[in-house]
Design a protein that fits this description.
five-stranded antiparallel β-sheet, 51% helix, 5 strands, 12 helices, alpha+beta
Length: 242
């Protein structure tokens, strides 16, 4: 697996991007290479411990519910799919919410076989400055970020993007590998998953605040994404943290 480690010169480029966390993992989810920002963040969060993340997996570095989500991502990417400019909210455990933008791609060997995954995450502000890989949709992503709890039709999103409905739907799906509504639903579900872990809010309140019409709708969509009901998810990872 050492063959998928980036060259020294390639890695040095990522070290200049202080707001970008970058990594490469093998098929088993072990970190083979990380940039300086990743190492710095890891050292701050694991003070006094072994500060080298190389050879570790997300189950060594993150809470169980996040590690499970990351592994689901890895399996999707190892199947040949890409995750493009996914907006996420992190930091509830520290009492502050920070928005980030994440992209992940498969890594291939010389014969074309997928042998690992690579990804980058940057803060939302850094994404805004850099434009991201889909700059044409930056206003739409900002709209989703700010109003994820409100209803949003494709007509509304197309208007925000200043595009015709047909062009918006086609170009968004091409850029993000999923439809606008699926992207928005996944955003809502990830925010809801964190609320289940980091708050004691009633399920109905989380459902409404994350843009679902009612608790039943929330439960159906959540089970489809995570294979748990919201109540089961909260209890499962509550036990895992204790």
């Amino acid at each position: 697996m050492a063959s998928i480690k980036p060259s020294a010169h390639f890695g040095e480029l990522f070290d200049f991007l202080e707001d970008v966390v970058a990594w490469v993992k093998d098929r088993d989810g072990r970190y083979l290479w990380v940039n300086r920002a990743f190492r710095n963040n890891y050292a701050l969060e694991h003070a006094g411990e072994n500060s080298d993340p190389i050879g570790k997996t997300d189950y060594d570095l993150s809470p169980p519910f996040l590690a499970d989500q990351y592994r689901i991502d890895d399996e999707q990417v190892l199947a040949g799919n890409r995750i493009v400019d996914r907006i996420e909210r992190v930091g509830e455990s520290e009492g502050t919410a920070v928005w980030s933008v994440t992209s992940k791609v498969p890594v291939f060997d010389a014969s074309g076989a997928i042998i690992g995954t690579a990804g980058i995450t940057r803060t939302q502000n850094a994404q805004a400055r850099g434009g991201g890989s889909s700059p044409a949709f930056s206003t739409v992503l900002a709209y989703m970020q700010e109003r994820y709890g409100e209803p949003a039709t494709n007509h509304q999103l197309a208007a925000v993007a200043k595009m015709s409905l047909r062009a918006f739907e086609r170009q968004f799906t091409k850029s993000f590998q999923m439809t606008p509504q699926k992207y928005l639903r996944k955003l809502r579900l990830r925010i809801a998953s964190r609320a289940l872990i980091y708050s004691s809010a009633p399920l109905a309140d989380i459902a409404i605040s994350c843009g679902f019409g009612d608790q039943s709708h929330f439960t159906r969509e959540f089970r489809r994404q995570f294979q748990f009901t919201p109540r089961e998810y909260r209890e499962h990872y509550k036990v895992a943290r204790e």
